[in-house]
Amino acid sequence: MSAPSVTPSKAGSSRRSTPRPEGPAPGGAFAKSLRRNLTAHSFLIGAVVCFAVFSWWPMAREFLLAFQRTESGKSVWVGLDNFRTVFNDPAFWQAWGNTLWYTALALVLGFLVPFVLAITINEFRHGKGYLRLLVYLPVMLPPVAAVLLFQYLYDPGYGLLNELLGFLHLPEQQWLQDADIAMFALVIASTWMNMGGATLIYLAALQGIPGELYEAAELDGAGLLRKIWHVTIPQTRLILSLMLLMQIIATMQVFVEPFLLTGGAGPEGSTTTVVYLIYQYAFNFDNYGAAAALGLLLLVLLAGFSAAYVKLSRAEEE
Protein backbone atom coordinates (compact mmCIF):
# COMPACT_ATOMS: atom_id res chain seq x y z
CA MET A 1 0.00 0.00 0.00
CA SER A 2 1.58 3.23 -1.17
CA ALA A 3 1.83 6.38 0.97
CA PRO A 4 -0.59 9.19 0.12
CA SER A 5 0.98 11.84 -2.08
CA VAL A 6 0.58 15.55 -1.66
CA THR A 7 -1.37 17.11 -4.50
CA PRO A 8 0.18 20.08 -6.28
CA SER A 9 -2.62 22.37 -5.22
CA LYS A 10 -2.09 21.62 -1.57
CA ALA A 11 1.64 21.99 -1.95
CA GLY A 12 1.15 25.38 -3.59
CA SER A 13 -1.24 26.49 -0.91
CA SER A 14 1.22 25.45 1.76
CA ARG A 15 3.93 27.42 0.06
CA ARG A 16 1.69 30.46 -0.28
CA SER A 17 0.80 30.37 3.36
CA THR A 18 4.43 30.69 4.32
CA PRO A 19 4.81 34.20 5.92
CA ARG A 20 7.17 36.57 4.14
CA PRO A 21 9.41 39.04 5.95
CA GLU A 22 7.82 42.49 6.07
CA GLY A 23 9.74 45.59 5.07
CA PRO A 24 9.39 48.74 2.94
CA ALA A 25 9.88 48.36 -0.74
CA PRO A 26 13.02 50.00 -2.12
CA GLY A 27 12.30 53.65 -2.73
CA GLY A 28 8.79 53.37 -1.31
CA ALA A 29 9.20 56.00 1.39
CA PHE A 30 10.61 58.51 -1.07
CA ALA A 31 7.84 57.86 -3.60
CA LYS A 32 5.19 58.21 -0.91
CA SER A 33 6.68 61.48 0.32
CA LEU A 34 6.92 62.76 -3.25
CA ARG A 35 3.28 61.94 -3.97
CA ARG A 36 2.18 63.56 -0.73
CA ASN A 37 4.08 66.79 -1.41
CA LEU A 38 3.61 66.89 -5.18
CA THR A 39 1.00 69.67 -5.01
CA ALA A 40 3.11 71.78 -2.67
CA HIS A 41 6.18 71.28 -4.84
CA SER A 42 4.19 72.30 -7.92
CA PHE A 43 3.15 75.59 -6.30
CA LEU A 44 6.71 76.24 -5.12
CA ILE A 45 8.12 75.58 -8.57
CA GLY A 46 5.66 78.07 -10.05
CA ALA A 47 6.63 80.73 -7.52
CA VAL A 48 10.34 80.13 -8.09
CA VAL A 49 9.89 80.38 -11.86
CA CYS A 50 7.96 83.67 -11.48
CA PHE A 51 10.66 85.13 -9.24
CA ALA A 52 13.39 83.94 -11.57
CA VAL A 53 11.75 85.39 -14.70
CA PHE A 54 10.41 88.67 -13.32
CA SER A 55 12.85 89.48 -10.46
CA TRP A 56 16.15 87.63 -10.52
CA TRP A 57 16.76 87.65 -14.27
CA PRO A 58 16.10 91.43 -14.64
CA MET A 59 18.51 92.06 -11.75
CA ALA A 60 21.19 89.90 -13.37
CA ARG A 61 20.53 91.54 -16.73
CA GLU A 62 20.83 95.00 -15.19
CA PHE A 63 24.18 94.06 -13.67
CA LEU A 64 25.46 92.99 -17.10
CA LEU A 65 24.04 96.04 -18.87
CA ALA A 66 25.84 98.34 -16.43
CA PHE A 67 29.12 97.27 -18.05
CA GLN A 68 27.87 97.13 -21.65
CA ARG A 69 26.79 99.48 -24.41
CA THR A 70 23.93 98.44 -26.65
CA GLU A 71 24.06 99.65 -30.24
CA SER A 72 21.85 98.38 -33.08
CA GLY A 73 20.69 95.48 -30.93
CA LYS A 74 24.25 94.36 -30.11
CA SER A 75 25.87 94.60 -26.68
CA VAL A 76 29.54 95.54 -26.40
CA TRP A 77 31.54 95.31 -23.18
CA VAL A 78 32.74 98.79 -22.17
CA GLY A 79 33.83 98.26 -18.57
CA LEU A 80 33.33 101.33 -16.37
CA ASP A 81 32.49 103.77 -19.18
CA ASN A 82 28.80 103.87 -18.21
CA PHE A 83 29.68 104.83 -14.65
CA ARG A 84 31.96 107.60 -15.92
CA THR A 85 29.11 108.89 -18.10
CA VAL A 86 26.77 108.97 -15.12
CA PHE A 87 29.24 110.66 -12.78
CA ASN A 88 30.09 113.34 -15.35
CA ASP A 89 26.43 114.25 -15.90
CA PRO A 90 25.54 117.50 -14.04
CA ALA A 91 22.04 116.14 -13.41
CA PHE A 92 23.51 113.20 -11.45
CA TRP A 93 24.36 115.17 -8.32
CA GLN A 94 21.22 117.28 -8.54
CA ALA A 95 19.10 114.12 -8.75
CA TRP A 96 20.78 112.64 -5.67
CA GLY A 97 20.36 115.89 -3.76
CA ASN A 98 16.67 116.10 -4.67
CA THR A 99 16.11 112.46 -3.75
CA LEU A 100 17.74 112.85 -0.34
CA TRP A 101 15.78 116.06 0.29
CA TYR A 102 12.54 114.32 -0.67
CA THR A 103 13.40 111.39 1.64
CA ALA A 104 14.07 113.75 4.55
CA LEU A 105 10.79 115.59 4.05
CA ALA A 106 8.88 112.34 3.60
CA LEU A 107 10.28 111.01 6.88
CA VAL A 108 9.04 114.10 8.70
CA LEU A 109 5.51 113.83 7.27
CA GLY A 110 5.10 110.32 5.91
CA PHE A 111 6.60 108.65 8.99
CA LEU A 112 5.24 110.93 11.70
CA VAL A 113 1.70 111.66 10.46
CA PRO A 114 0.55 108.00 10.21
CA PHE A 115 1.84 107.29 13.72
CA VAL A 116 0.02 110.30 15.16
CA LEU A 117 -3.15 109.30 13.31
CA ALA A 118 -2.92 105.77 14.67
CA ILE A 119 -2.57 107.06 18.24
CA THR A 120 -5.54 109.38 17.73
CA ILE A 121 -7.79 106.66 16.29
CA ASN A 122 -6.75 104.27 19.05
CA GLU A 123 -8.06 106.71 21.66
CA PHE A 124 -11.60 106.58 20.25
CA ARG A 125 -13.95 104.16 21.97
CA HIS A 126 -16.47 104.03 19.12
CA GLY A 127 -16.29 104.30 15.35
CA LYS A 128 -12.78 102.90 14.93
CA GLY A 129 -13.88 100.83 11.95
CA TYR A 130 -15.22 103.86 10.08
CA LEU A 131 -12.09 105.87 10.88
CA ARG A 132 -9.86 103.06 9.62
CA LEU A 133 -11.85 102.93 6.39
CA LEU A 134 -11.65 106.71 6.00
CA VAL A 135 -7.87 106.71 6.47
CA TYR A 136 -7.34 103.79 4.08
CA LEU A 137 -9.52 105.16 1.27
CA PRO A 138 -6.67 107.08 -0.47
CA VAL A 139 -4.65 103.85 -0.74
CA MET A 140 -7.49 102.21 -2.69
CA LEU A 141 -7.40 104.96 -5.30
CA PRO A 142 -5.22 104.28 -8.36
CA PRO A 143 -2.04 106.40 -8.11
CA VAL A 144 -2.80 108.19 -11.39
CA ALA A 145 -6.28 109.17 -10.17
CA ALA A 146 -4.87 110.48 -6.88
CA VAL A 147 -2.21 112.48 -8.72
CA LEU A 148 -4.83 114.00 -11.04
CA LEU A 149 -6.79 115.03 -7.96
CA PHE A 150 -3.76 116.88 -6.61
CA GLN A 151 -3.17 118.48 -9.99
CA TYR A 152 -6.60 120.05 -9.59
CA LEU A 153 -5.85 121.06 -5.98
CA TYR A 154 -2.51 122.64 -6.94
CA ASP A 155 -3.71 124.43 -10.09
CA PRO A 156 -2.63 128.11 -9.83
CA GLY A 157 -5.78 129.37 -11.56
CA TYR A 158 -8.74 127.50 -10.10
CA GLY A 159 -7.11 125.12 -7.63
CA LEU A 160 -8.88 124.50 -4.35
CA LEU A 161 -5.79 125.30 -2.25
CA ASN A 162 -5.38 128.75 -3.79
CA GLU A 163 -9.11 129.36 -3.42
CA LEU A 164 -8.74 128.55 0.27
CA LEU A 165 -5.74 130.86 0.61
CA GLY A 166 -7.67 133.63 -1.10
CA PHE A 167 -10.60 133.12 1.27
CA LEU A 168 -8.17 133.52 4.20
CA HIS A 169 -6.66 136.64 2.56
CA LEU A 170 -3.29 134.91 2.14
CA PRO A 171 -1.07 135.12 -0.95
CA GLU A 172 -1.66 132.44 -3.55
CA GLN A 173 1.14 130.02 -4.39
CA GLN A 174 2.55 128.46 -7.54
CA TRP A 175 2.60 125.01 -5.97
CA LEU A 176 4.16 123.05 -8.80
CA GLN A 177 5.76 125.92 -10.72
CA ASP A 178 7.89 127.33 -7.89
CA ALA A 179 11.23 125.57 -7.43
CA ASP A 180 11.24 126.39 -3.71
CA ILE A 181 7.97 124.68 -2.82
CA ALA A 182 7.49 122.08 -5.57
CA MET A 183 9.14 119.37 -3.50
CA PHE A 184 6.93 120.17 -0.51
CA ALA A 185 3.88 119.81 -2.75
CA LEU A 186 5.09 116.38 -3.89
CA VAL A 187 5.66 115.21 -0.32
CA ILE A 188 2.17 116.33 0.75
CA ALA A 189 0.59 114.44 -2.14
CA SER A 190 2.66 111.32 -1.53
CA THR A 191 1.89 111.35 2.20
CA TRP A 192 -1.85 111.57 1.58
CA MET A 193 -1.71 108.77 -1.00
CA ASN A 194 0.30 106.29 1.05
CA MET A 195 -0.31 106.94 4.75
CA GLY A 196 -3.32 104.60 5.05
CA GLY A 197 -1.35 101.35 5.07
CA ALA A 198 1.19 102.59 7.60
CA THR A 199 -1.58 103.93 9.84
CA LEU A 200 -3.31 100.53 9.98
CA ILE A 201 -0.02 98.79 10.78
CA TYR A 202 0.69 101.21 13.61
CA LEU A 203 -2.88 100.86 14.88
CA ALA A 204 -2.55 97.07 15.02
CA ALA A 205 0.68 97.43 16.98
CA LEU A 206 -0.93 99.90 19.41
CA GLN A 207 -3.84 97.57 20.09
CA GLY A 208 -1.40 94.88 21.13
CA ILE A 209 0.02 96.95 24.01
CA PRO A 210 -1.28 95.73 27.40
CA GLY A 211 -3.60 98.24 29.05
CA GLU A 212 -1.93 97.62 32.42
CA LEU A 213 1.11 99.55 31.26
CA TYR A 214 -0.96 102.67 30.63
CA GLU A 215 -2.76 102.23 33.96
CA ALA A 216 0.57 102.00 35.77
CA ALA A 217 1.80 105.12 33.96
CA GLU A 218 -1.35 107.00 34.97
CA LEU A 219 -0.85 105.97 38.59
CA ASP A 220 2.64 107.44 38.39
CA GLY A 221 1.12 110.73 37.21
CA ALA A 222 2.18 110.46 33.56
CA GLY A 223 0.36 112.65 31.08
CA LEU A 224 -0.42 111.90 27.43
CA LEU A 225 3.01 112.82 26.06
CA ARG A 226 4.86 110.93 28.79
CA LYS A 227 2.73 107.84 28.20
CA ILE A 228 3.53 107.99 24.49
CA TRP A 229 7.25 108.45 25.16
CA HIS A 230 7.65 105.86 27.93
CA VAL A 231 5.02 103.27 26.96
CA THR A 232 3.84 103.56 23.36
CA ILE A 233 7.16 104.10 21.61
CA PRO A 234 9.14 101.42 23.54
CA GLN A 235 6.36 98.86 23.00
CA THR A 236 6.21 99.56 19.24
CA ARG A 237 9.93 100.12 18.64
CA LEU A 238 10.29 97.00 16.50
CA ILE A 239 7.51 97.93 14.09
CA LEU A 240 8.68 101.55 14.06
CA SER A 241 12.18 100.45 13.06
CA LEU A 242 10.83 98.22 10.29
CA MET A 243 8.55 100.93 8.94
CA LEU A 244 11.39 103.47 9.03
CA LEU A 245 13.54 101.17 6.91
CA MET A 246 10.73 100.53 4.43
CA GLN A 247 9.94 104.25 4.28
CA ILE A 248 13.50 105.17 3.38
CA ILE A 249 13.73 102.46 0.71
CA ALA A 250 10.40 103.51 -0.82
CA THR A 251 11.08 107.25 -0.84
CA MET A 252 14.52 106.80 -2.40
CA GLN A 253 12.75 105.20 -5.37
CA VAL A 254 10.07 107.87 -5.85
CA PHE A 255 8.97 108.28 -9.45
CA VAL A 256 5.19 108.47 -9.95
CA GLU A 257 4.55 111.73 -8.10
CA PRO A 258 7.24 113.91 -9.76
CA PHE A 259 6.67 112.31 -13.16
CA LEU A 260 2.93 113.04 -13.21
CA LEU A 261 2.75 116.26 -11.19
CA THR A 262 5.78 118.19 -12.46
CA GLY A 263 6.69 116.32 -15.62
CA GLY A 264 9.63 114.67 -13.88
CA ALA A 265 12.26 117.40 -13.81
CA GLY A 266 10.09 120.15 -12.38
CA PRO A 267 10.97 123.86 -12.34
CA GLU A 268 14.74 124.31 -12.69
CA GLY A 269 15.19 120.57 -12.18
CA SER A 270 14.01 120.84 -8.58
CA THR A 271 12.08 117.55 -8.66
CA THR A 272 14.48 115.43 -10.70
CA THR A 273 15.00 112.20 -8.76
CA VAL A 274 17.38 109.31 -9.28
CA VAL A 275 14.70 106.99 -10.65
CA TYR A 276 13.47 109.69 -13.04
CA LEU A 277 17.04 110.16 -14.25
CA ILE A 278 17.21 106.40 -14.86
CA TYR A 279 14.00 106.74 -16.89
CA GLN A 280 15.53 109.56 -18.94
CA TYR A 281 18.69 107.59 -19.71
CA ALA A 282 16.71 104.55 -20.82
CA PHE A 283 13.74 105.98 -22.71
CA ASN A 284 14.75 109.51 -23.70
CA PHE A 285 18.47 109.06 -24.41
CA ASP A 286 18.40 105.34 -25.40
CA ASN A 287 21.40 104.80 -23.15
CA TYR A 288 20.45 101.59 -21.38
CA GLY A 289 23.97 101.07 -20.10
CA ALA A 290 24.00 104.36 -18.20
CA ALA A 291 20.49 103.66 -16.89
CA ALA A 292 21.61 100.25 -15.63
CA ALA A 293 24.74 101.74 -14.06
CA LEU A 294 22.73 104.34 -12.16
CA GLY A 295 20.22 101.70 -11.09
CA LEU A 296 23.06 99.53 -9.83
CA LEU A 297 24.43 102.43 -7.79
CA LEU A 298 21.01 102.94 -6.21
CA LEU A 299 20.74 99.22 -5.48
CA VAL A 300 24.15 99.10 -3.80
CA LEU A 301 23.37 102.19 -1.71
CA LEU A 302 20.02 100.85 -0.47
CA ALA A 303 21.43 97.38 0.17
CA GLY A 304 24.34 98.84 2.15
CA PHE A 305 22.03 101.06 4.15
CA SER A 306 19.69 98.15 4.92
CA ALA A 307 22.56 95.92 6.03
CA ALA A 308 24.04 98.64 8.27
CA TYR A 309 20.63 99.43 9.73
CA VAL A 310 19.93 95.78 10.56
CA LYS A 311 23.37 95.36 12.12
CA LEU A 312 22.96 98.45 14.29
CA SER A 313 19.48 97.34 15.36
CA ARG A 314 20.79 93.93 16.44
CA ALA A 315 23.68 95.50 18.32
CA GLU A 316 21.25 97.79 20.13
CA GLU A 317 19.02 94.86 21.13
CA GLU A 318 21.98 92.90 22.49
Show the helix and strand layout:
Elements: H1 8-16, H2 28-36, H3 38-65, E1 68-71, E2 74-77, H4 81-87, H5 90-123, H6 128-140, H7 143-154, H8 160-167, H9 182-207, H10 211-219, H11 224-235, H12 237-251, H13 256-261, H14 274-284, H15 288-317
Antiparallel strand pairs: 1-2
Helix pairs in contact: 3-15, 4-15, 5-9, 5-12, 6-9, 10-11, 14-15
List keywords for this structure.
disordered N terminus; 318 residues; globular; two-stranded antiparallel ribbon; single chain; 2 strands
What does this structure look like?
- This protein is an all-alpha fold and 318 residues long.
- 72% of the residues lie in helices and 3% in strands.
- It has helices at 8-16, 28-36, 38-65, 81-87, 90-123, 128-140, 143-154, 160-167, 182-207, 211-219, 224-235, 237-251, 256-261, 274-284, 288-317, and strands at 68-71, 74-77.
- The chain has a two-stranded antiparallel sheet.
- Strand 1 (68-71) and strand 2 (74-77) form a beta hairpin.
- Helix 10 packs antiparallel against helix 11 (224-235).
- The chain starts with 7 loop residues before the first helix and ends with a helix.
- The model is unreliable at 1-15 (pLDDT under 50).
